[in-house]
Inverse folding.
């Protein structure tokens, strides 16, 4: 029985439909400092790059063992959350 090992590297273009949601809730309730909340969501198709490495081991005719690592970078996406607090809170 002969065993085979394959080491490889890969890279290329990556794209994905990314959805990011951000929210907050502040329960500080006082006459001069009331609580508030905010929420915003953004969805976009992002493009970027990917790279990876892996190893494959053929044990016999029926078994293949594979281990791989893939890194994907789709850049950054900024999502501002609107404030609904009092003016005392937003002065910071």
């Amino acid at each position: 029985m002969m065993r085979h090992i394959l080491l490889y590297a890969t890279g290329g273009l990556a794209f994905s439909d990314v959805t990011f949601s951000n929210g907050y809730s502040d329960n500080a309730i006082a006459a001069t400092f009331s609580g508030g909340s905010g929420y915003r969501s953004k969805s976009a198709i992002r493009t970027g790059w990917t790279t990876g490495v892996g190893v494959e081991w053929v044990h016999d005719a029926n078994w293949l063992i594979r281990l791989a690592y893939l890194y994907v970078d789709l850049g950054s996406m900024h999502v501002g959350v609107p404030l609904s607090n009092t003016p005392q809170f937003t002065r910071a």
About this structure: The radius of gyration is 24 Å.
